[in-house]
Design goal:
CATH superfamily of the largest domain: 2-enoyl-CoA Hydratase, Chain A, domain 1
Radius of gyration: 19 Å
Distance between the termini: 43 Å
CATH architecture of the largest domain: Alpha-Beta Complex
Bound molecules: 3-methylmercaptopropionate-CoA (MMPA-CoA)
Number of helices: 11
Number of domains: 2
Shape: globular
Structural class: alpha/beta
CATH class of the largest domain: Alpha Beta
Number of strands: 9
Helix content: 40-55%
Strand content: 15-25%
CATH topology of the largest domain: 2-enoyl-CoA Hydratase, Chain A, domain 1
Oligomer: single chain
Length: 257
């Protein structure tokens, strides 16, 4: 399916997936949500990592509110499940995803960012959940993912009081793992994606699929899942080759950060 509000560019083994609806601040209408889902479900096998960014002054203004007014309860439920499906195809999709954030990262835009594995924010970024003041609730998985980043208390505060976090405070509380100068988020996100793409695919798979599930398990189950994943990962020929390369002095040492 082609949607002119989404563009996919390839840079080596990195896919750069860009929201291109700047006149509407990249607000996510149904067509754009389905295009995002389709993009992640159909990434070519050659892609090893992806970056999401947004054209114009803002990353994403969230749900396209112009589509909200006519829905009844049943349609609202199905709409939310459609978002879940799309954002799930990012979080538990084929490759790690780095979000390049700037300007507004609000409502469903924050839900989209939360479904990515790494978030890089530039100094213009701000985070908000205006659902509280619009009389609605999050519907794109935000109530599950956002508390895992910043905690239930902070999310409650954002929705109850309309609190907006700036870029610096957003990094401090855990929205973004990286904070960069204004205009530098995309370059940094691509740099990180390129680094991630050099990992063994099974390691990236474990980080995307096993780690968040282990975090949700009771400790005893988590240890067991970890052991299964560790056994599977170390059995891969690529893991053996990488360890051998280190032991033979042919692989990079860990350098001081
Ligand atoms: C939109 C949307 C939108 C902008 N749906 N049309 N999200 C919100 O409540 C955020 C609403 N948006 C804003 O607060 C501001 O637009 C921004 C802070 C993001 C950007 O401000 P600014 O001054 O740069 O742009 P603007 O002039 O407000 O917007 C430009 C146009 O985009 C304008 O349309 P125009 O026809 O008058 O040019 C806006 O109406 C339009 N626009 N945001 C529709 N969100 C799965 S559930 C998720 C639930 C939610 O996400 S609720 C939160 C929705």
């Amino acid at each position: 399916m082609t949607n002119t509000d989404l563009r996919i560019d390839h840079q080596g083994d990195i896919a750069i997936i860009r929201l291109t609806r700047p006149a509407k601040r990249n607000a996510l209408n149904d067509g754009l949500i389905l295009a995002l889902r389709d993009a992640f479900q159909n990434l070519p096998d050659t892609v090893r990592a992806a970056v999401i960014d947004g054209e114009g002054p803002h990353f994403c203004a969230g749900l396209d509110l112009s589509e909200l007014s006519e829905r009844d309860a049943g349609a609202g439920l199905r709409h939310s499940r459609m978002w879940h499906d799309a954002l799930e195809s990012i979080q538990h999709g084929p490759v790690p995803v780095v979000a390049a954030l700037h300007g507004a990262v609000v409502g469903g835009g924050l839900e989209l960012a939360s479904a990515c594995h790494i978030r890089v924010a530039d100094a213009s970024t701000f985070y908000a959940l205006p659902e509280g003041s619009r009389g609605i609730f999050v519907g794109g998985g935000g109530s599950v993912r956002i508390p895992r980043l910043i905690g239930v208390a902070r999310m409650t505060d954002m929705m109850m009081t309309g609190r907006v976090y700036n870029a610096e405070d957003g990094e401090r509380v855990g929205f973004a793992q990286y904070l960069v100068a204004e205009g530098a988020a995309l370059d940094k996100a691509v740099e990180l994606a390129q680094r991630i793409a050099t990992n063994a695919p099974l390691t990236n798979y474990a980080l995307m699929h096993a780690l968040p599930r282990i975090a949700d398990q009771p400790a005893d189950h988590g240890y067991f899942t970890e052991a299964l994943m560790a056994g599977i990962a170390q059995d891969a020929p690529e893991a053996k080759a990488r360890v051998r390369a280190f032991l033979e002095g042919k692989a990079a040492k860990v350098a001081k950060g």
